[in-house]
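Sequence design from tokenized structure. All designs in this work follow the same two-part layout: the structure record, then the generated sequence. An example of the structure record is given first.
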């Protein structure tokens, strides 16, 4: 098929040209080479036939309007491709600019998702009508892939809404808005309920504005809110560094920095120069490693994980109708809310009616907040709440075809609650436990149908955290795994699938990070430096504060249980240098973490963290003990990445996509790395570089950094770390 057919030119008798975006070779339109040729040909024709044209409408024949840049291509781009990337982008922008300035009204009829490049095409139009389709999204999410919108996205949003709004509403967060919220935030001009209405509104704009121009092409135009020399911007300025700081926490995330620079510098110059500035900053990002890491994780891996690469094949979906949630505490309450939000009926059981009602009250609280922010309606709130039945009576669980247990972390209690409900719930109900540490195989031994038993490890707070770690026990059947997977997807969470082991994948690996931070305190390093290193490595939570949240007694308990198991099996327990620090903190100083009111930090009466405990310096810090900051950061990152490799060796993990997504979304492995395995693949020098550095760390800081055999073998064979 000819390349030039990715855009169809359909002209009616009145002179309205509809440009139908419809790449014949792909399910979605992207900014590929064919598009570049097509849009140039369209611009030529529009200029040549200008007198016969009354107006132009961009729309698409695909489900989505336009998908954006071609990420398959972008992930391969290296520094040597910089000029080609720059020129390609410039060519597409020049074509769009010619259409934008033709002197005829140009309208975007946004029939479905318009993200990234898709929304940039719409921005080059004078008017934007969006179809209010469920699930449709509009925005510029490039920052979440380590990029910036270089199809004119920075230049036009700055001119459309002013620097402050462009940065904060569109560019720096990468928010993907629903059509309704896109309207409220000024990304589109009007909504339409049906495709016909959308096209009618587009035509109405053309009829009413025969001389339409972009605001920035009108003589005397000024950027709303002014440019940085303007007093209003000066007043806003302090907000940017704070917002930026929060977003990147000092980590090597160049995208927000480049976006800010492109917006500010671009606002001081004419439109065409601004486009060039934007392109330069983009080229720098796309040719670097961090964008590749983020595209790999947040586009390819996320898609693989969510599309069911790990769901057993050939098993017919059997949607869950009614879920029993056992335990209405923090986790149970959040799980009940997430299920009801997906339209699933929930029976929320606790020991007393009051405790169960308190669990339901959590949903009421979340919904009241959503209502006050205009994110839900009274009717939707009522419908959701009506789906949750709080109870203390096991008989109310009749008819449930799935059970999610979230009672205290205690094996015998968990066994007891499953025994209590058997014979009441459906005979083949899916049996899930939200345990965060107890091996699933062992828990399954206490239920009558171990093949139907599976781990569903949610993260706190459940309504916000996107990940669920599905844990297969030794006897878990494939059908059960498929049903659990489908349930997680139905409640719009991202499922990773792991095999059973102590601490599974996430709880085990996050322990390495925490232990490493605590060990540094034990070595005599300033605790504030340890916290700073975690932030600069890009961890969303600082290491000692995270330890306090999880409580210091928890790792002790887990460690002692694991130690016993290892020693019973006849092996020697590998002591970790953090053990002694935790023991002293608990035994000598009685500091058990935030819930105990004192840990590595001090806490106010309201439970809020106030400052690092000065006693740390007195009892642990050794003046003059310093190690390079890079070592501190890499000790944290390597400890987790190496343990992730061990999870592959031990068969806990079987998919690189799961490892990358699970590490970022579950335990806060820094997003710029693209996840624990992508960090290794993208490390300077590739696998051999990573292995060499791990050996250096092992020589200086301890054997725990010795690279596992699996990694060394792959490095020697010149491979990347992949599933195969
Ligand atoms: P929680 O202490 O807030 O809630 C436990 C609830 O279980 C309480 O409301 C309690 O009354 C109820 N319960 C006790 N015995 C019961 C019985 N016989 N029947 C019904 N309900 C009973 O605990 P949380 O934090 O919600 O944790 C629950 C489970 O989730 C634990 O296994 C925990 O390890 C796991 N988990 C916790 C996470 C967290 O961040 N807190 C994260 C992931 C998993």
């Amino acid at each position: 098929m000819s390349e030039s057919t990715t855009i169809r030119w359909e002209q009616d008798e009145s002179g309205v040209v509809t440009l139908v975006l419809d790449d014949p070779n792909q399910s979605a339109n992207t900014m590929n080479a064919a598009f570049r040729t097509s849009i140039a040909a369209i611009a030529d024709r529009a200029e040549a036939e200008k007198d016969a044209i009354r107006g132009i409408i961009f729309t698409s024949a695909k489900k989505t309007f336009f998908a954006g840049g071609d990420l398959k291509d972008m992930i391969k781009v290296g520094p040597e491709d910089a000029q080609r990337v720059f020129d390609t982008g410039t060519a597409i922008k020049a074509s769009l600019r010619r259409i934008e300035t033709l002197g005829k009204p140009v309208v975007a009829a946004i029939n479905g998702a318009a993200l990234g490049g898709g929304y940039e095409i719409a921005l080059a139009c004078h008017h934007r009508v969006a179809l209010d389709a469920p699930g449709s999204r509009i925005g510029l999410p490039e920052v979440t892939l380590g990029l910036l919108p270089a199809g004119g996205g920075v230049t036009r949003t700055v001119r459309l809404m002013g620097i402050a709004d462009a940065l904060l509403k569109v560019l720096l967060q990468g928010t993907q808005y629903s059509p309704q919220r896109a309207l409220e935030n000024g990304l589109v001009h009007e909504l339409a309920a049906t495709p016909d209405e959308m096209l009618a509104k587009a035509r109405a704009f053309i009829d009413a504005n025969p001389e339409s121009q972009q605001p920035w092409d009108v003589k005397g135009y000024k950027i709303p809110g002014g440019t940085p020399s303007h007093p209003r911007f000066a007043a806003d300025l302090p907000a940017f560094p704070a917002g930026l700081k929060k977003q990147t926490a000092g980590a090597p995330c160049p995208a927000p920095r480049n976006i800010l620079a492109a917006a500010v510098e671009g606002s001081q110059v004419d439109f065409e120069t601004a486009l060039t500035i934007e392109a330069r900053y983009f080229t720098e990002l796309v040719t670097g490693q961090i964008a590749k890491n983020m595209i790999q994780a947040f586009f390819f891996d996320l898609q693989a994980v969510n599309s069911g690469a790990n769901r057993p094949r050939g098993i017919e979906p059997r949607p869950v109708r009614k879920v029993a949630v056992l335990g209405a505490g923090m986790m149970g309450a959040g799980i009940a809310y997430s299920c009801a939000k997906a339209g699933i009926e929930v029976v929320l059981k606790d020991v007393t009616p009051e405790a169960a009602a308190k669990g339901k009250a959590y949903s009421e609280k979340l919904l009241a907040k959503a209502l006050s922010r205009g994110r839900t309606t009274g009717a939707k709130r009522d419908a959701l709440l009506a789906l949750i039945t709080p109870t203390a009576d096991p008989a109310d669980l009749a008819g449930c075809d799935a059970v999610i247990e979230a009672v205290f972390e205690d094996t015998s209690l968990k066994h007891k609650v499953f025994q209590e409900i058997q014979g009441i719930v459906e005979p083949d109900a899916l049996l899930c436990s939200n345990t965060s540490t107890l091996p699933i195989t062992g828990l399954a031994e206490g239920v009558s149908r171990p093949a139907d038993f599976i781990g569903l490890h949610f993260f706190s707070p459940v309504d916000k955290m996107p990940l669920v770690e599905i844990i297969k026990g030794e006897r878990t059947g494939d059908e059960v795994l498929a049903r659990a997977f489908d349930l997680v997807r139905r409640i719009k969470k991202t499922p990773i699938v792991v095999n059973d082991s102590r601490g599974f994948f996430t709880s085990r690996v996050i322990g390495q990070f925490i232990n490493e931070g605590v060990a540094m305190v034990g070595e005599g390093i300033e605790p504030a430096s340890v916290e700073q290193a975690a932030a600069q490595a890009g961890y969303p939570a600082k290491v000692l504060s995270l330890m306090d949240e999880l409580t210091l007694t928890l790792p002790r308990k887990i460690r002692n249980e694991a130690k016993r198991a290892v020693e019973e099996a006849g092996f020697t327990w590998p002591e970790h240098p953090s053990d002694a620090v935790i023991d002293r903190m608990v035994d000598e100083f009685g500091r058990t973490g935030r819930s105990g009111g004192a840990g590595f930090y001090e806490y106010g009466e309201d439970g809020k963290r106030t400052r690092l405990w000065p006693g740390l310096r007195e009892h642990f810090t050794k003046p003059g003990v310093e190690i390079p900051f890079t070592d501190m950061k890499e000790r944290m990152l390597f400890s987790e990445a190496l343990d992730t490799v061990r999870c592959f060796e031990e068969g806990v993990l079987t998919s690189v996509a799961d490892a990358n997504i699970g590490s970022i979304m579950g335990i806060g492995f820094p997003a710029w790395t693209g996840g624990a395995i992508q960090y290794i693949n993208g490390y300077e020098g590739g696998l051999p570089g990573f292995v060499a550095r791990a050996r250096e760390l092992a020589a200086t800081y301890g054997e725990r950094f010795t690279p596992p055999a699996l990694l060394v073998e792959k490095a020697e064979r010149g491979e990347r770390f992949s599933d195969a």
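The pocket of NAI is lined by residues 326-332, 349-351, 355, 406-409, 413, 417, 434-436, 457-460 (CB under 6 Å). We note this feature because it recurs in several other targets discussed in the main text.
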